[in-house]
Amino acid sequence: MKLLKLSAVAALTCALSITAQADGTKQKRELKNNMMVKTNIVPGKVDKLSEMFTDGMFYGRLRTNYFKWDWKNDNANVDNKAFGLGGSLKYKSATYNGISAEAGFYFTSSPIRSLRQNESQVGKVKAGKDTFSRYLVSTTGTWEYAVLAEANIQYQYSKSKAIAGRQIFESFLTKSNDTKMIPNTFEGVVLETKELAKTRIRGAYFTAQKLRDHTTFHDVITFKDEAGNSWDNNDDSAIHKGLTYQNFKAAGKDVNHELIVFDARNKSIKNLKVDVTYGAVPGVVSSLTGELNYKIAFGGGYTLTPGVRYMKQFDNGGGKVGGASLKGKLVTWTGNTATYNASKGYSTPDSLDSSLWMARLVLKKGPLKAKIGYSAVADEADIVAPWRGFPTGGYTRAMAQYNWYANTKTINVEANYDFDKAGLVPGFSAMARYAIQNFDETKQAAGVQADSKILHMDFRENFKNGLYAKIRVGLVNADARTSGINKDSYNEYRFELNYLF
Question: Contact at 8 Å (CB) between 311 and 355?
Answer without folding.
Answer: yes
